[in-house]
Amino acid sequence: MIRAVLDTNIAVAAGKSSANSSPNREIISRWIQGQFKLLISRDIAAEYALKLRERGVDESAIVEFLKHLALLADIRSLTFSRHCDPIYVREGGLRLTPEPCLPSLPATRSP
Questions:
Q1: What angle do CA 52, 54, 60 make, to 5 degrees?
Q2: Best CA proximity match to 24, nearest among 58, 65, 54
Q3: What is the dihedral of CA 28, 51, 47, 24, to 10 degrees?
Q4: In sequence order, which ranges of the chain are alpha helices (DSSP H)?
């Protein structure tokens, strides 16, 4: 089965669209129908809710979407292999750390 992480803009556009023919609504509909597995983290779910609220999506629609996430999505936890902040303040302004700070995912759960 295909596994995917959806950009927040897709969830927002689907929530704002009133057209059933919206490509973004179709993506969400296909996920709800089980045509692919949505991978999310708690932070991603929180960002979906925040962006939907900021765009004026009805609170009941947000709650319904979050219920679908809880029931149907594969919720993962992201952990960092070492403490690091990808941006730090230094004399002269913001700088990127010399080494990338990449999250690691725990082993895949069995379907």
A1: 45
A2: 65
A3: 20
A4: 8-16, 23-32, 42-54, 59-72
Task: Encode pLDDT of 3-20 as tens digits.
Answer: 998 888 888 888 778 787
Spatial contact of 102 and 82, defined as CB atoms under 8 Å apart: no
Joined together, the tokens standing for residue 100 give 């990338």
CA distance 23 to 103: 30
Q: Six-digit token pair at 39?
A: 């991978």
What's at 2, amino acid-wise? I
35 Cβ partners below 8 Å, 6+ apart?
A: 2
Question: Which two three-digit tokens encode residue 55?
Answer: 């765009």
Question: What is this structure's pTM?
Answer: 0.60
